[in-house]
Design a protein that fits this description.
Layout: H1 3-13, E1 30-40, E2 49-56, E3 59-64, E4 70-76, E5 81-84, E6 86-91, H2 102-105, E7 109-114, H3 124-128, E8 135-138, E9 140-141, H4 142-149, H5 159-174, E10 180-183, H6 194-201, E11 211-215, H7 226-240, E12 243-246, H8 259-271, E13 277-280, E14 285-289, H9 297-300, H10 304-311, H11 314-331, E15 338-340, E16 345-346, H12 347-353, H13 359-369, E17 373-377, H14 381-389, E18 393-395, H15 410-425, H16 431-438, H17 440-446, E19 462-465, E20 486-491, E21 494-498, E22 501-502, E23 528-536, E24 539-547, E25 555-561, E26 568-578, E27 581-590, E28 595-603, E29 614-619, E30 622-628, E31 634-638
Parallel strand pairs: 1-4, 1-5, 6-7, 7-8, 9-10, 10-11, 11-12, 12-13, 13-18
Antiparallel strand pairs: 1-2, 2-3, 5-19, 14-17, 15-16, 15-17, 19-20, 20-21, 21-22, 23-24, 23-31, 24-25, 26-27, 27-28, 28-29, 29-30
Keywords: Hydrolase, Signal
Protein name: Amidohydrolase family protein
Pfam family, one: Amidohydro_3
Amino acid sequence: MNKMMTALLATAAMGLPASGAYAAPAAPSSYDVIIRHGTVFDGTGAEGRVADIGIVGDRVIAIGDLSRAKAAVEKDATGLYVSPGFVSVHDHSAPTSYARPEGILTQGVTTAIANPDGGGELDLVKQLDVPLGLNYGGYIGFNSVWGNVVGFDNRRATPDEIDRMKALVLKGLEDGAFGLSSGLDYKPSFWATTDEVIAVAKVASGAWRTNFTNHERVFPGNGYSSMAGMRETLEIGEKAGLMPVITHMKLQGRDNGKTVEAIALATDAKKRGVDVGMDAYPYTYGSTSLEQLTIPSWAQEGGRDAMLKRFKDPALRAKIIAETNEQIDIRWMGPKGVYIVDIEKRLPVEMAARGNISGGEAIVQLLEEGNRRVLLSFGTEEDQAALLKDPLQVVSCDCGANTSKVGHPRNWGSFPRFLGRYVREQKLVGWGEAVRKMTALPAAMVGLSERGYLLPGMVADITVFDPKTVIDRSTVEAPTLPSVGIQAVLVNGKLALDDGKMVDGTFGTRLVRSRHEPSRPMNFDIARSVSATGKVSGTTIAINLAQAAGAAAPTGKVSVKGLPGGTLAFTPSILQTTKGWASITGTGKRGKGKVEAITLQLEQADPFGGGKPTLTVLADGRPILEGALPDGAILVAEGGR
């Protein structure tokens, strides 16, 4: 640890400002919105404190006693919990529901990252350039890339096709994708080899500093082992130079009960220096199309028409049915674990109705009549609770807004279910930790830096909920029953949900991942510091800032003179860091201007700036200064993890 960091952390530990402390702007006396008297959870994992929240435009400007201040809109949150808006990193919203995402907005979600499991549009700009009811970003999907170039056949990609796929991934990243998603359990990318995936994924490494999230392969070739699929995800991420993310993590097939071993896969990778992400949702059954994860992969090659043709061949049909029965028994916990959504029946009922045939034969017959949606049981409550409790685990939902009246209850219940069932009733984790898992932790994983925390300077994405009543109500039989207990949701400072009801309007925005927002582990629990000196375009900076492990705010010096608008009077709220990168967010006032949200982004060796130290200054999210500093001008340091 360097001397500067040691000295600053000593003062931070005492809760005292360091020598040459930053200047603080005066708080305004009026706001657009004030949320009063709620118990505020900031997303760091800390427990809540009663405070008022003052919002101007789309930013949080003040948190504390605002009893003397006024606002155009005032919300009384007495007895309620107020948190950052929930961040859904695995969103399956139908594009037709982007403007009115009721199912997930009523869960408290304010930000969703679309195109998980490798799917979605290749043109992210076109996909998300529509009215949005909440904030949407997108992954670039490996399955879509593979299908576009290689098609639906089980064959090896040529060198030219690898290059074409890399170009599509690169275009997605340039358009602001939040990472590369894959679903290697799904066809056609199921037929890609591990080495082929790595070859394509490498284009997203290096300067992009992003993540590879994957729905793991579970198939006869790896013994129906979800852990084998997780190991493949880690291998691809590590060899491609991306943060591997084990998405909608679950233990199925022959791995039920191996939670300790599964979590060790991630912790062991971290010991090797690999930053790993994980997310899991609070259900023991998933949802997909009937054919994808029940019919053997070889029988699906060439698409649906080719599959139906194989069904008509007696020898092939018998083989398909036998292998399907094996998958049902090993992977989906027997026929009773299969629920056909479209006809609202469990598989044993169909087996009996069709003459007491096997589950495999019933599925083949159902698919001959048309494709179906299906719920598939994969594991146990004990396993899922153990995964959700792990400190590295993001709480996700694998859900999305849509207008269908049938489907998985997670589309309406995931986040309230976690809060009500696992936090309030089972006391799996405390409220502060629960909020962290749904806000700041997922935001860091995908690379967001001004969302995920409820602190001055951050975007005013806010969820207000009742800890006494929040719970899901959706079930397999009634999957669209709204949850209860989510009282209000603000998206970019605007009330999108009020008293549990949607407000007319589209208050979301298309999220574009900045080149200065790396995927990273959340490190609020370690000591960190940043120092910087020099001049950029007539602006002189002198920064010497540190934040102790778990400390409420950074301490030290931030001097920024000569900005457009005048010298900055600044109060930092949080210091975020990762290897060679730092982001300082707070509130500031330039000269005689108004108080505004300020973020300073510092790159020790900017990979998009020729390896030079660079500084970017954002005011209310808009860049007002960006440029290079002299070599060695920026030093980012972190204590032991």
